[in-house]
Amino acid sequence: MMGHELSCSAVDDLLVDLVDDALDRALAAQVEQHVASCPRCRSLVGDLREIRQAASTLPPVPPPPHVWPRLRAALEAERADPFHSTRPTARLRRAVGLAHGRPTSESKGRLLPAWGRMAAAAALLVVAISAGLWSLWVSREQAEPLRATRTEAGDRRAQDLVATVESEIALAAEHYEKAIAGLEEAARASGTELDPDVMATLKTNLALVDQAIDDSRRAVRDQPDNLVAQASLLDAFRRKVTLLQDTVALMREVRLDRSAMPAGLNEG
Amino acid sequence: MSDRDRGDDASLVSRCVAGDISAFEELYHQHSGRLYSLTLRMLGNAADAEDLLQEVFLTAYRKLASFKGASSLGTWLYRLAVNACLDHLRSRSARNDLRTDSLDRAEAPRIGARDPAMVPTRFDLERAIRQLPPASRSCFVLHDVEGFEHHEIASMLGIAVGTSKSQVHKARMKIRAKLVGASAPTTDRAGRASQPGETP
Predict the structure, then answer these.
(1) Where are chain A's structural domains?
(2) Nearest-by-CA chain B residue for A252
(3) DSSP string, A213-227
(4) In percent, how much of chain A has pLDDT > 70?
(5) What is A159-260's CATH topology?
(6) Do A46 and B57 touch (CB under 8 A)?
């Protein structure tokens, strides 16, 4: 190309590399020769170089003074109750003892090994659900003698109450089932594979929650006016929503970590 | 990184990990300026930048125990912030923002013939960066402000090197249009520059 006069259009195609000083010497010399003789290109290249230079020397912008007090408050809240982090992913990570599919520093030393914490997390859920179901069973047993003593008028009032409660429970169930369906879809759509151990724990926990939902639903059908049964069903729905929210958040974070950064930017 | 800096980092980190909130405040004041500048310029608005800065420091607080000192504390925090910015930009709301191109719609101030000694003021440049569309803004900030190479940006954003170059070029041209107005050329889809009135 040496010896040929470049056109403005040819220079335009080389502008980004020219401004970045990324052209080889021979080509750069040719471009500079054109730029020196062309007012339009001289103006353009000069401006772009000024912009690049000014951008590279922009000074830091201090954050507004209210950011630190807000951060400090968030830190203190987290220190006071670390298992109620504002981030569901952090909650789930702590529960299973893994971060980004790798053992955390905690899992390497201070606490239980990863499998132990996963088992512990699953066991905690089993205890919570079992306690709910036990209360439900006890309340059902206690309700039986009361049924036998009901009067006819009492039965009519009870039927009215049952209709109201059934309607409210149905609305709540519809609300939660929509939320659950959306989260399940989001988890499927993420297309991310989690660590097999984490997946196994999640599946175990989801199966337990589903079992609790089924049991509670049966109990509500049997005794629509039983407050414990109603609370148990709603609690089981809430548990499933929370677990799915955490799963979706974890999948999203794992996917971003795997795809986002070049190797050099992932190491601490 | 000097041994002294490494020692300072290690001392500060161990105090933070031990629960010393004043140590974390010191860490915050040492690094928040650079990280806030990054989040502000990458995201283009102060409210999101403040939220993200808080999230970055909360993440740092949670992960400090795993900080090994292989790089400086500043570099480690910077990586957390870059990751957080990219995460934000990939979010659904940010993807929606990608459709907006405020600078294209904005009325560029016409200041007559180009001043041959154009040196953009910091204020004007910051404002022009904020008004860039997110895709151009993130490439421009990472390349021209933060000093990443195109191949690094391509890897971070999951785009081709040519796309990074094209986005940076578009950003520079848009900033120029904003700063010098009347004589600014436009770019076609391939990122090629052309003067107003010229057939692309």
Answers:
(1) 159-260
(2) B87
(3) HHHHHHHHHH-TT-H
(4) 45
(5) Four Helix Bundle (Hemerythrin (Met), subunit A) (1.20.120)
(6) no
